[in-house]
Amino acid sequence: MNAFNADQLRTLALILLKINDRGAALALAFFGVSGMLNAYLIFRSTFLPRALGILGMISSAGWLRFFYPPLRFPSFMFIVVFALSVAAVEIFWLIVFGVDEERWKERYRLSTQVL
């Protein structure tokens, strides 16, 4: 590191921090796309309550805000708390209640009759 003086090292560190910040924001935005698709599938399925899908879509919309830079950070903590709460509710539902097994078997039975 003797090739750079102290100001150049600080500038390089700042550039790398800004690149990391933009990369993390882009990753959160694409996480929002993934979450929106998952929430839509939960909403459309008959195996889980539709409310879980709606809550998932709302929390994913918060992550999608990271595609537009001015909306990124003003409400970041609210988005994180809400999204983690929704994820905790979904996990709780799957652990305690699981999927609707009767509907699952009915859909399986209908899909095998078509063949």
Strand element count: 0
Radius of gyration: 21 Å
End-to-end span in angstroms?
Answer: 68 Å
* Average pLDDT for all residues: 88
Secondary-structure-derived class: mainly alpha
Please indicate the percent range of residues in DSSP E strands (runs of 2 or more).
Answer: under 5%
Largest sheet: none
Overall 3D shape? elongated
Order of helices and strands: HHHH
Supply the number of helical segments: 4
The helix content is over 70%
Query: Which stretches of 5+ consecutive residues score pLDDT under 50?
Result: none
Please describe the structure with a list of short key phrases separated by commas or semicolons:
single chain, mainly alpha, 0% strand
Descriptive notes:
Helix 1 (6-44) runs antiparallel to helix 2 and helix 2 (50-64) runs antiparallel to helix 3 (76-96). With 115 residues, the chain is mostly helical. The protein has helices at residues 6-44, 50-64, 76-96, 101-114. It is 77% helix and 0% strand. It contains four helices and no strands.
Write the layout of secondary structure elements.
Layout: H1 6-44, H2 50-64, H3 76-96, H4 101-114
Helix pairs in contact: 1-2, 2-3
Quick structural gist:
The chain is an all-alpha fold and 115 residues long. It has helices at 6-44, 50-64, 76-96, 101-114. It is elongated and about 75 Å long.
